[in-house]
Amino acid sequence: MNPSDTFSVAITTEDPLTADRLVDALQENGIDAFARASGAASADGLQATGPSSWALLVPTSTIEKAVGLVKSELAAIESEAAQNAQAAEEEALSGETQIP
Questions:
Q1: Contact yes or no for 31/10 (Cβ under 8 A)
Q2: Which of 35, 49, 68, 95 qualifies as a cystine partner to 40, CB 3.0-4.6 A?
């Protein structure tokens, strides 16, 4: 990374776990990346606020490569979610899980 590089937002996500996974995927591919919490939200206005989104920042010089990798990783996350949902449904139908 060039010390004079600026950072740009590659994607914004509402899920901190997804943001962490995307940062890991980018770093594994040699792209400096970090997630920064932004905004604030409260469920009822009485509770403490927490971050409402996470911006994934990468060096501007790598933005195109980063966006491509992010899209691939998001597709993998979606695929895993569908597989996990199907496995959970199959488990529920098999009677393996006892509901008290």
A1: no
A2: 49
- The answer to whether residues 9 and 15 touch, using CB atoms and an 8 Å cutoff, is no
The band of 3, judged by pLDDT with boundaries at 50, 70 and 90, is low
* pTM for this predicted structure: 0.72
- Kindly give the residue spans of alpha helices, DSSP state H, lying in 1-100: 16-28, 63-94
Q: Report the C-alpha dihedral over residues 24, 27, 28, 31, rounded to 10 degrees.
A: 140
Where does 7-94 sit in CATH, by number?
Answer: 3.30.70
Q: What does DSSP assign to residue 84?
A: H
Distance CA(98)–CA(39), nearest Å, equals: 41
